[in-house]
Amino acid sequence: MITRRKLLKNLSAVPVVGGLVGTGMVSACEFSKTDSGAGTEEATRNFFEELGVTPVINAGVTMTFLSGSLMRPEVMAAINSTAHDFANMYQLQDKVGEKIAEMLNVEAAMVTSGAACAMVLGTAATITGMDLKKRRQLPDLLDPRPEVIMQKSHRYVFDQAIPTAGAKIVEVDGAEEMEAAINENTVMALYFNAASGPILHEEFVAIAKRHNVPTFIDAAADVPPKENLFKFQKIGFDLITFSGGKMIRGPQSAGLLFGRKDLIEAAKFNHSPHEAPIGRPMKVNKEEIFGMYAALKAYLELDHEKEWQDWLDRIERIKTKITTIETVSGETHVSPGPANAFPSMLVSWDEEKVKMSPKEVSDALKAENPSIVTNIRRGRDGAADRLSVGVVLLKPEQVDYVAERLADVLSKAV
Ligand SMILES: *Cc1c(COP(=O)(O)O)cnc(C)c1O
């Protein structure tokens, strides 16, 4: 039995998540005491050790092969507090989508299983609309094949999402070619935000709009700054995607797709929980949908200036520790973006004095347990390579640990 006191105590631990009301709240709390494992053996069970998986300290950037980012506490709270009750997935996606759309000043939004999924769903949406027969056909039987326009300089690994949805990529080079390439089979024009020209955002949107072709922009890794979450709808893109599991620090298998309402509806129509569409294998579970919402809300409410200052302070702390070693110097480097636009530290030294290359130092740190992952920044035009130490994904207590380990490896090479 749960007493009122216990209930209130538990309620205060439950984050305010849309949709968690009424009797659902009580049962969620009742279960969460045991299921969350707090204070039980489960809480201390070390799955990494049990399975022989090496824990990684990520002194780099968000990378999918390193499990992306660590979910915010708000996300974990949302996942834990919603895991104990069923929900109608159509309703959940609609309600969360409405809230996200409101937060981002767009007509509509949905949670996908990541930006790559959003690209498949967005493409599918522009092909099928709400046509059930077409939805069943994807990705086959389409003759002539739907076409998606991309700039030649924007081609990248993730554009395989387009043929995955049944469309063919038509490459263009420059505005004139784009105009000429648009025909009755064109369903969409895709812009990769981190690529450069020759057609810039505004012109790209203007050309597509003249021909009534929906535009899609992939800005998956392009926060910070937070403003980027609002930028592309203002320019006029019809569909926009961001990863959920990068710097927004939501679930790794979640992402955002937002923009024009009819297209978002068609994207949902091509997604789970519908049973047959192209997006069915790209399901997002209930907890992650709640979690993505909580992540975005927390991210938007964050004091970004303070966070940025904290990152700079972390660099200074590590720098102070390692620059006591002869010839070692550290430089704060802010990546201009659009992806990974945050500070990291570039470390260099005289290899006559510290007899290891940046690659050897990086390898030595990687071989430790816990493994510390750093990156190498290649020197251009004959300049030496440097060790790049990222700070934005470190847990607070890992900052000094990374500094110590790095100092130790470097000083042993003197
Ligand atoms: C990470 C990334 C993706 C894929 O995003 P997921 O959320 O992992 O599916 C797509 N495009 C770009 C530019 C990315 O950086």
TrEMBL record:
Protein's UniProt keywords contain Lyase: no
Instruction: Look up the domain of life of the source.
Output: Bacteria
The protein's required cofactors: pyridoxal 5'-phosphate
Q: Name one GO molecular function term.
A: L-seryl-tRNA(Sec) selenium transferase activity
**SUPFAM superfamilies membership:** PLP-dependent transferases
Which InterPro entries does the record associate with it?
PyrdxlP-dep_Trfase, PyrdxlP-dep_Trfase_major, SelA-like
Residue numbers carrying N6-(pyridoxal phosphate)lysine = K246
UniProt keywords (A-Z) are: Aminotransferase, Pyridoxal phosphate, Transferase
Give the similarity note: Belongs to the SelA family.
Name of the protein described by the UniProt record: Aminotransferase class V-fold PLP-dependent enzyme
Which species is this record about?
Answer: Flagellimonas alvinocaridis
